[in-house]
Amino acid sequence: MQCTKCAEKAVYTGQGQNFCKNHFINYFENKVLRTITRFGLFAPDDQVCVATSGGKDSLSVLYMTMKYCREHHIAFFALAIDEGIAGYRDHTLDDLRLFCTQYDIKLEIVSFKDRFGDTLDNIREKGIEKNKKPCTVCGIFRRTLLNREAKRLGATKLATGHNLDDEAQSFLMNTLLGNMSHNASLGPITGLNQNDKFVPRVKPLYFISEKESRLFALLKGFKVEFNECPNIGLSFRATVRDEINAIESKLPGAKNGIVNAFLEILPELKEKYRAEKSRHTFQYCKRCGDACSGEICNACRLEEELCRKETVLRNSKE
Ligand code: SF4
Ligand SMILES: [Zn+2]
Ligand SMILES: [Zn+2]
Higher-confidence residue: 134 or 74? Predict the structure, then answer.
């Protein structure tokens, strides 16, 4: 098949067009840069922290943020969380270190072990997570650490590698679970109300599909492992992802359809839940001081659960 724009062989077909390597890279970069400007994701005085793991989406978002920020003289750096998933995260972090050295990007890595006392693998092995799935524990700790560390390092924005597939999945997951208020927090800029405890999260890859992100990483020659985390199959997200992929294969463009339909109702959702939230005064976690909805935040509740379980395990061995 030939590229729609030149005589070269096409490496990509989508959106009714075929692109060769160079035209695909142009198409990809323009789509990301348009998202950054359309939604005003970065401002001149921002200090941008890019949440990255060494996977394809995170290297693509790091590369594109670097490109935009260097051109617009905006400060940025990379932050990675090492959850402690043997045989997976250690490899992606090696890829990330190499990438950051190659492009001269400042990189900070913080681990669950240093900040919460143990690796995710050990937490699972000890059965500490009770009825919680590994992704629930991982998600709570990682979200908390990203925010805390970005804040500590002076960031004013946290750029994540969430793509079109992730957004379609999140919207459907929240909808299936009846959590419409959680949908109000999605979008290219997440969150509802500004709070100085939260670093606003932005998603430059918002309109980029998983397939496009994978191809971009491949064509740019980024050294990335295309392996998945061994825990992904246990998550609800994996079920929703497989269903959406099955629909997309029968109805190409379905993922775009879901996200564009969601964007149409997002302003109303934000307005409704922002008004509801602002009626409640913000509470701050008694243990760590982060903003939260109860007396203690989810991460601190989980940490306390881990400590209790450790004590039980220690006592049972004595
Ligand atoms: S798949 Fe689950 S356990 Fe693995 S990195 Fe993602 S959230 Fe964490
Ligand atoms: Zn071409
Ligand atoms: Zn807390």
Answer: 74
Token output for 278:
């602002």
Closest residue CA from atom 3 of ligand 1: 135
pTM of the model: 0.91
Measured CA to CA, the distance from residue 253 to residue 13 in angstroms comes to 12
Q: Which of helix, strand or coil describes residue 118?
A: coil
111 forms beta bridges with: 82
CA of 260 to the centre of ligand 3 (A): 35
- Give residues (CB < 6 A) around ligand 1: 83, 134-135, 138-139, 229, 231-232, 235
Q: Are 285 and 297 in contact (CB under 8 A)?
A: yes
Count CA within 13 A, CB hemisphere, residue 162: 20
Mean pLDDT of the chain: 90
Ligand 2 (single-atom ion) residues, CB below 5 Å = 3, 5-6, 8, 20, 23
Q: Which domains does the chain have, with CATH numbers?
A: 38-280 (3.40.50.620), 281-318 (no CATH)
End-to-end Cα separation, the chain, in angstroms: 70
Q: Pick the atom of ligand 1 nearest to 230's CA.
A: 4
Residue 226: predicted pLDDT: 63
